[in-house]
Specification:
TIM Barrel; 14% strand; globular; alpha/beta
């Protein structure tokens, strides 16, 4: 089992989980969830926009792992944002996931006209115990400043794209300062940097793969991280990262690799 961290409302979240963003591989998501749970993973991160909440539910059911042992995250899609529409979308996610609650419900993107009303809906869902924790995705300082000015409940999590190549220490520092747990997606940069000579050299030093180094880097930033894979060997490899620590020197080297490589939109486009 992976280590956990306690969120600002006292709920524990595993520090490492499985991301299931796989639009061209949704038929493989159920099997990936089963493999991950078999290997000890207990955090599954999906979203309405991924179109695979039902496959996640099938994987959980087939695994035989009790629901109470799992941490299931999903997100409201952009087209469903707004107070009433978010409540309806949440009910639909519960139906597809075949559960009566989720562990974490997130706003997927900070859509300008609807994000504050959507947050009010998340607060309502939390107060009604539909979600054990609520949070946001892809929020940088301006989005968080706006939200915290009116929110009655502090977001528990801010899920952002995070890798050495998309590393914004100011956002991480802001989250720490406000007690918001950072969670990083796309830690493996979809394989785009696997042959980067600097990354390869660090991996060789520790006898690990470049992917394992990227996952370890995210963890040592203090972030929860959710590498995506639908391959059993890769899932196993991604979770085999708790037997080594990157040195301060190597962390500094990896921190210097930032070149704004992204696999998703820039949240600053949502101002």
């Amino acid at each position: 089992m992976t280590p956990t961290v306690v969120l600002n409302n006292g709920v524990e979240i595993p520090r490492l989980g499985l991301g299931v963003y796989a639009p061209s591989h949704n038929h493989e998501v159920q099997q990936a969830v089963e493999w991950a749970l078999e290997l000890g993973c207990r955090l599954i991160d999906t979203a309405a926009a991924y179109g695979n909440e039902q496959e996640v539910a099938d994987g959980i059911r087939a695994s035989g792992v009790a629901r109470r042992e799992l941490f299931v995250t999903t997100k409201v899609r952009n087209d469903d944002m707004g107070f009433d529409t978010t409540l309806r979308a949440f009910d639909e996610s519960l139906r597809k996931l075949r559960t009566d609650y989720v562990d974490l419900y997130l706003i997927h993107w900070p859509v300008r006209e609807k994000r504050l009303d959507t947050w009010r809906a998340l607060e309502h869902i939390y107060q009604q115990k539909g979600a054990r924790a609520i949070g946001v995705c892809n929020y940088y300082q301006p989005h968080l400043d706006e939200l915290l000015a009116t929110a009655e409940i502090m977001p528990a999590v801010n899920q952002i794209e995070l890798s050495p190549y998309c590393h914004l220490p100011d956002v991480l520092a802001y989250c720490r300062q406000h007690g918001i747990q950072a969670e990083g997606y796309a830690p493996l940069v979809r394989g785009l940097k696997q042959h980067d000579p600097a990354l390869v050299a660090v991996a060789r030093k520790y006898g690990k793969s470049t992917y394992q180094v990227l996952v370890r880097w995210s963890l040592q930033q203090g972030a929860v991280t959710i590498p995506k894979s639908v391959k059993k060997d890769r899932i196993r490899e991604n979770f085999d990262v708790f037997d080594f620590d990157l040195s301060g020197e190597d962390m500094a080297l990896l921190n210097s690799l930032h070149d704004n490589t992204r696999i998703a939109d820039d949240p600053m486009d949502y101002l």
